[in-house]
Amino acid sequence: MPQNAQTGAAADKWGRETAREIAKKIGAISISESSNEFELAGQIVAIHCARQGNDQIGVTYETLKRIDFVIAAFEVDNVTREFQLLLITRMLYGRIPRHSKRKGKVALASKRAIKRLAATQQTIHLSTVK
């Protein structure tokens, strides 16, 4: 289903809130109020989330210049709030994406492609109570 301004804004809000919850769960510290960038074990990571049924994430090319790793968080179950986390270096992530329709500003990558190159994989559950 195509996004419009309203559904896009809702998805963006969900992604940012979820990234912050995941960061807290894995011990990452926010380095920016306006982005999904965090410090984790001395490295800068960007956490990007996809809802259950969505098999891709997008990271801006500007973000890829600033970070060391991408953590792709794919929702496995929206009732139990289970996520599969895939950690991939920015260099490897930069090799696999296709450009979005946003004038080439966003690098899109599929779960399958990320999973093939991911350094680590982990499953986590977020609290069902916020």
Total number of beta strands: 9
- Tell me what portion of residues adopts beta-strand conformation: 35-45%
Number of discrete helical segments:
4
In terms of structural class, how would the helical and strand content be classed? alpha+beta
Top-tier CATH class: Alpha Beta
Counting structural domains, the number is 1
Shape: globular
Instruction: Give the neighbour order of strands across the main sheet.
Output: 1-2-3-5-6-9
- What is the overall pLDDT average? 90
Rg, rounded, reads 14 Å
Describe the main β-sheet briefly. 6 strands, mixed
Q: What is the CATH third-level topology name?
A: Trna Endonuclease, Chain: A, domain 1
Descriptive account of the structure:
It is built from four helices and nine strands. A hairpin with a 6-residue loop joins strand 7 and strand 8. It has 130 residues and is of the alpha+beta class. Helix content is 32%, strand content 38%. It has a single domain, classed as 3-Layer(aba) Sandwich (Trna Endonuclease, Chain: A, domain 1). The mean pLDDT is 90.
How is the topology of this model organized?
Elements: H1 5-26, E1 29-30, E2 37-40, E3 43-50, E4 56-60, H2 61-66, E5 69-77, E6 82-89, H3 90-95, E7 98-99, E8 106-110, H4 111-117, E9 120-125
Parallel strand pairs: 3-5
Antiparallel strand pairs: 1-2, 2-3, 4-8, 5-6, 6-9, 7-8
Compose a concise summary of this entry.
This protein is an alpha+beta fold and 130 residues long. Helices cover 32% and strands 38% of the residues.
